[in-house]
Amino acid sequence: MSAATPALGQPGSRPDSTEQVGTPAAEEVVPAPADRREPGDVLLEVRDLRVSIPTAAGPVHAADGVTLTLRQGEVLGVVGETGSGKSVTCRALLGLRPTPRTEVSGTVAYPGLGVDDITGLPPRRLRRLWGRHVAMIPQNPMTSLDPVRRIGDQVAEALGDTVHGAAARRERVIELLRQVGLPAPERRLDAFPHQFSGGMLQRTLIAIAIAQNPAMLVADEPTTALDVLIQDQILGLLLSLQRDLGTSLVLVSHDLSVVSQVCDRVAVMYAGQVVELADTATLLSSPRHPYTRALIGALPGAVARDEPLRVIPGAPPPLVGLGPTCRFAARCELHEAACDEWPTELLPVGAPAGSPSPFRPALRLVSHQSRCRRAPDLATADAAPPTTPKDQGEQR
């Protein structure tokens, strides 16, 4: 074992990993006892979250007025094309910022953990939340692990101070690697990341995330860099762990077909905003925002085999200097002049709250919400289908 890396019996290499911070007890992150967190209890509550990144061209509003909730045991999908703000938003749920100068406002509360708001907490306070209460599976497994540290040491570091003694820590690391499906985990402890395939690296990152059995996992596009077969295996693993551990899961993806298979609810993001939020079955069968409708229409299998795939004309707007009106207007087939005067809000549409989740019947879902003035029109049978631009060369 390299002398530069901590042994499996050590709690970790970061000097501040066990630092004591002199803060009032009332401000400490204190988890609710596991037996008091029942399915359906609100674990996460986000209100008017705004993340602004300063640039030479002006502030980029990567998240602009995001409001949503996550319940205990729920799987929430966050979907949108590249640049929609989904990854920045979900990192903000853990208090992570793209740059030190990033401005964050709004509220990110964890009622299920007794935490009122994390948006203003310094990193040393956030470290009490990370790992033991909330954890993240990062987007790219190839670049997310330290290339010069052994796999076993990196997983052991994620244990924090929850397991003591070299032998006990080693056994726990082996157990975690076995739990995520790595073959012969005893022989993998001394391997380096470059000796693992992409799928094995992703499984290792999942083992690190679940090391302290957190109440919530955020998986940021966990299947993007993997082939189709491995993607299915990783999704199956995440769902199996979510059920076994009772963990809530936020699954970030640009692929609506992925989240539709596994999520209780889906939040659709466009240009920094949640434009539609509904349970998965309702979203797929009765979308109430033109962008969601167009995304579904662009899925392979949404059109006859002899027809070209539908595309969404135009491109998303830059996230600088945007006003309060609809950000999809320039690409929308239902756009009217009145839309330019209507300040968009995420409002209830369709059926009221309280329907059971098809994946977890004990979980009661919230209402269907849309940010479109024409949402009622999309419920009618004569609503125009998504159009296919004449120029098939346009980019989605």
From TrEMBL:
SUPFAM superfamilies linked: P-loop containing nucleoside triphosphate hydrolases
Q: Name one Pfam family in it.
A: ABC_tran
One GO cellular component term: plasma membrane
Subcellular localization is given as: Cell membrane
Location of the ABC transporter domain: 44-296
> Which InterPro entries does the protein's record reference?
AAA+_ATPase (IPR003593), ABC_Ni/Peptide_Import (IPR050388), ABC_transporter-like_ATP-bd (IPR003439), Oligopep_ABC_C (IPR013563), P-loop_NTPase (IPR027417)
Residue ranges, annotated region (Disordered):
1-39, 370-396
Instruction: Look up and give the membrane topology term.
Output: Peripheral membrane protein
Write out the GO biological process terms: peptide transport
The Gene Ontology terms for molecular function here are: ATP binding; ATP hydrolysis activity
Query: Family per UniProt?
Result: Belongs to the ABC transporter superfamily.
Q: What is this protein called?
A: Peptide/nickel transport system ATP-binding protein/oligopeptide transport system ATP-binding protein
